[in-house]
Amino acid sequence: MATQEKNENIAKFLTLDIDKQKRILNAAMKEFALGYKNASTDNMVKEAGISKGLLFHYFGTKERLYSYLIDYVIEIMQEEYLQPMSNVIQADVLESVWQLSLLKGELSLRYPAIFDFGASAYVDTTAPCGNIRLTRFGEVQMNLIKQMYEKADCGLFRDDIDPKKAIDIILWTIEGFANSVVAAIPGEGVGGKARENYDKFLEEFQEIINVLRRCFYKQNVEVSDL
Question: Is the pLDDT of residue 186 over 70?
């Protein structure tokens, strides 16, 4: 009976306007990214602009909300990040990381806390669930990084450079920059200041990619399309 009631309440949540759903879930992800134990439902409802009673009406308990978010994030990441990732990996490593970072940035605009939440949930020992389900997600992501190494055309790199070490440096550089972009995107997500800031970072990122290309590649073929 309790399971049926839970499913019915989730079904009611899914009838809400999609923007309201995202506002509630983004607020919950943002708070849970601080760690399950420290997450405050008071902060979630304040951020989402709803009552606490309504949050618990839809999800029942903090644990159920967290579990729902895990499944929600895995579904989004698989459909909007991991699957497209496999299609953009190519012989030109710098072109690959450019396309992958565009994917990550656009996803962060729509779901501002998704990467922080995923990273937190993956290692959070206080959380009642999630680690096992997220392990598979992590394995898929690592496999895609492995594909990047395997598909890389080492002939693009200068002869006096170890291609594998160069790829390591490229990935570390891009990951650091991408994380700074994600952190700087305001919580409101798509539109307004978030989009304006993102477009600025994208121009900076394009310059970084082209600097790396000049440093490591034989030919100076620059990324030109945003």
Answer: no
